[in-house]
Write a structure and sequence with these properties.
By secondary structure, the chain is an alpha/beta fold. It has a single domain (about 5-165, about 185-235), classed as TIM Barrel (Alpha-Beta Barrel), CATH 3.20.20. It contains nine helices and eight strands. Strands 1, 2, 3, 4, 5, 6, 7 and 8 form an eight-stranded mixed sheet that branches. Strand 6 (about 130), helix 5 (about 145-155) and strand 7 (about 155-160) form a beta-alpha-beta unit. Helix 5 packs across helix 7. The longest helix is centred in the last third of the chain and has 14 residues, at about 170-185. The protein is globular and about 45 Å long. About 45% of the residues are buried.
Length: about 240
Amino acid sequence: MEIIADLHTHTIASTHAYSTVTENAAAAERQNLAVMGLADHSFKTSDSPHIYYFMNLYRIPRKIGNVTILRGVEANIDIKGNLDMDEFPKVFDSLDYAIASMHASTMEIGHTEEEYTAAWLKTIENPRVDILGHMGDPRYPFDIDTVIKAAAKAGKIVEINNSSPETRKGSQPLCLKIIETCKKYGVHITLSSDAHFWSMVGKFDWAMSVVEKTRYPKELVINSSVDNLEAYFNTRPNKKKISF
């Protein structure tokens, strides 16, 4: 299966990442990607850019070289299932897409499975959320069947994050269970690098191995073709159309 887009990349705007937009886009082109998404951390993460960064993302050209650039955010979920970016609805609405993830700076460790499950369910109800990010983090256990079933009903995308085995230790068996449950309910997924340096952009080796192991249907992998991306991004209610 070919992957033509990487929707989860970070730039130096997230200060624990080390490459520019231009460097990442050049790397994406070398990897033969058609699309690259900018998903820097939203403002309540300790390393995040100011909200002005997201207000001004329209300044970044839609095309860099032969790569279409999508302007997004990785928003932070709190224990109530709220997103920090909801505090700036006009800015949030101006972006092409949003990943919602749990991070230690905004999501406390040590809550119950029921609380984390409720947080995911509330997040899934948020119409501004497109992608549920790196869900296999073992620090935040949740009822996988309940949450993935809700994601299927709401039409949310589940991310298979290539960096999880390295950065979220113990996540591999949970990720496998999540993707198997996604297949059970027919959930759309995306493979992402979660790149924090240009050489990671377009790297999906581990994520691809999981997809192949589970024989995940290509038509449910939104970044397996430009047609699949368009089918998702350009059929969302109240969202602007994107030319790929």
